[in-house]
Amino acid sequence: MAAWNGLLPIGGKRRPDLNGAVVVITGGARGIGAATARLFAQQGAAVWIGDIDAEVAAETARGIPGAHAGRLDVTDRASWTAFLSEVTAESGPVDVLVNNAGVMPLGRFETEAESTTDLILDVNVRGMLNGMRATIPSMVTRGRGHVVNVASMAGMIPIPGMLTYNASKFAALGASLGARREYDGTGVAVCAILPAAVRTELSSGAQLGGALPTVDPEDVAAAILDTLRTRAARTSVPTWVAPGWSLVEAFVPEPVERLARRLAGDRRALDVDGSARKAYTDRIERHASAHAEEATR
Question: Which residues, in sequence order, are CB contacts of 175 under 8 Å at separation 6+?
Answer without folding.
Answer: 125, 128, 129, 132, 149
